[in-house]
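Notebook p. 47: complex prediction with geranylgeranyl diphosphate.
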Amino acid sequence: MKHSAVTDKILSNYREGRKAIAWLIDPDKLADKADFLAQLKIVQRHHLDFIFIGGSLVESNGTEEIIATIKQIDTTIPVILFPGNASQFTPNADAILFLSLISGRNPEFLIGQHVTVAPLLAKSKMEVLPTGYMLVDGGVTTSVNYISQTIPLPNNKPEIALATALAGSFLGLKYFYLDAGSGAQVPVSSSIIQAIKSQIDAPLIVGGGLNTLDKVKSSFKAGADVVVIGNGAEKNLSLLTEVLEYVHVLNLSLNIN
Ligand SMILES: CC(C)=CCC/C(C)=C/CC/C(C)=C/CC/C(C)=C/COP(=O)(O)OP(=O)(O)O
Ligand SMILES: O=P(O)(O)OC[C@@H](O)CO
Ligand SMILES: [Mg+2]
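Predicted complex, structure tokens below:
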């Protein structure tokens, strides 16, 4: 894969208004390898855009092997690390979401883990995606919430979310991720997505609690560029394939009009 391949793919989708889906794989929750291989073959046929891999708290050290397995099946779907901390770094991914938790005030997640991993990243030459990560209140205490010991943004205060994203943008962050947290009861509100989309010229990733096609549609309609699906796919892979079909048709219609 070319060194800027992931950045190029995200940015060209963004500029052309093409929507994309990321499948979030939690390395601790993978069923057996044969199941995983079968799942990979299915999503590959449905034009999956990205694979994210990581978690707030990852106990196994199987990430490297999972990535190697993915690469055996498909070398075209970018595998992007979505790390909860520096120890989840592994050099065989294509890119890393270099998340700064700008909704919080915990220095460890604003800059601390980043310093720890930076020398490894420099050696690996991995693509780095500087991302303003904003945790939004999804109605339950999520793992990110607890592990990061930060207060999420209120889901009904778009002006605070926008001020946060603007600050991140002025700091030079290139991507923004609005996350209601894995398994959120309520996804990130459309008003927050819209507020950020209308003022910030950067790809917007949205995830957390998007466990039905309708919720995914609403996120895209409000302005999400990349939608992340984790729990929904863990419970039922056909949600992911249904969503992928929808996005494929949506993107085809862009070419026609
Ligand atoms: C730059 C590096 C190396 C690390 C960044 C570290 C930061 C700032 C992380 C942000 C806060 C955080 C803990 C994010 C984790 C996000 C993530 C991968 C969530 C996936 O879902 P889980 O929170 O694991 O959900 P479950 O509890 O359902 O498994
Ligand atoms: O597992 P779900 O609820 O789909 O959330 C995905 C991701 O945005 C969590 O960080
Ligand atoms: Mg997890």
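Notes: The chain has one domain: 5-256. The pocket of geranylgeranyl diphosphate (ligand 1) is lined by residues 26, 54-56, 82-86, 89, 98-101, 109, 113-114, 117, 133, 143-144, 147-148, 182-183 (CB under 6 Å).
Next step: compare against the earlier run before touching the bench.
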